[in-house]
Amino acid sequence: MRLGLIGTGRIGTMHARTLLNVDGVTDLRITDALPERASRLADELRSEGWAAEAAGTSDDLYSGGVDAVVITAATHAHAALIHAALDREVPVFCEKPVALDAPGTREVVEHDEAVRTPLQIGFQRRYDAGYRAARDAIRSGRLGWLHTLRAVTGDQDPPPAEYIATSGGLFRDCSIHDFDVLRWITGREVVSVYARGANRGADFFAAGDDVDTGAALLEFDDGLLATATATRYNGAGHDVRLEVCGSRDAVFVGNDDRAPLPSAEQGVTWPSAEPYRTFLERFRSAYVAELTEFVEVAAGRRPNPCTAAEALEALYVAEACDLSRRTGRPVTIEEVRG
């Protein structure tokens, strides 16, 4: 299978090597908005013994023939690149988000449903062993009825200033992973949110009409409550965890020996390993599993595990949180559906 890769930033570069290690993938065609970056990555991969070549543009990539395409370009380019792939009926994997707003995402959903070409959206936490174990514990009934979920996402270091302008904001860019995985593990839908945001760090967040720290209270359709907090300044390390608390038992995702959780208690030495520093470290295995399954989806051997329609539901939660933090009031999901 020949795959196309559009975008050669940090995650695109990692995905290139991951894809070339997947059984059935024979070679990779690579393009980027900056052609020299695509050429440089293709040269590196060939020097390592892989079959890879650069294409000047995405049109050149398709004209050379690809069986499926992986999109890891800048966020603002996602929707147009997805539409171009669907027009050619080429199976697509795209990192979240589908688009920067709900109308743009709905357009992609409608296009995908019309052509019925696989479009898998990248929410890699669905492939993390801890989140999968939590989902199994919930679905089995072992935890009893759930009363509280606490989701945490903390980046150790903020992104560059230029990233903020096109990121969609903290809730759409960062917390949306929590919103998606909370829906996925519980099988329930969020009905209302109340969110707040703050800026305690660099001025470029406020200048970009964003916040560097946020907290959201979510209410689900069965009355379950969840909190989701996020920050760009978690000095202890990259912190992604989930607490799932039920009437009979509880499970905790992300509490391994690399969790950045220094204890204030005397005599406690856990955790003792080097903390995670980036999301690429924290979710390396999940990314491999996710892309391996996409190759199966593109080949027609498995159903799509994460559709654009599901990504739209997570985006509605993020949009509601952003509206709530701007207005200072609770917001229902129906209010943002449009």
Automatic annotation (TrEMBL):
Pfam families: GFO_IDH_MocA (PF01408), GFO_IDH_MocA_C3 (PF22725). InterPro entries: Gfo/Idh/MocA-like_OxRdtase_N, GFO_IDH_MocA-like_dom, NAD(P)-bd_dom_sf. Residues 131-248 form the GFO/IDH/MocA-like oxidoreductase domain. The keyword Secreted does not apply. The keyword Acetylation does not apply. Its EC number is 1.1.1.18, 1.1.1.369. Keywords: Oxidoreductase. GO terms for molecular function: inositol 2-dehydrogenase (NAD+) activity; nucleotide binding. Residues 2-114 form the Gfo/Idh/MocA-like oxidoreductase N-terminal domain. It is an enzyme of class 1 (oxidoreductase). PANTHER family: BINDING ROSSMANN FOLD OXIDOREDUCTASE, PUTATIVE (AFU_ORTHOLOGUE AFUA_2G10240)-RELATED (PTHR42840:SF3), NAD(P)-BINDING ROSSMANN-FOLD SUPERFAMILY PROTEIN-RELATED (PTHR42840). Belongs to the Gfo/Idh/MocA family. This is Myo-inositol 2-dehydrogenase/D-chiro-inositol 1-dehydrogenase. It comes from Saccharopolyspora gloriosae.
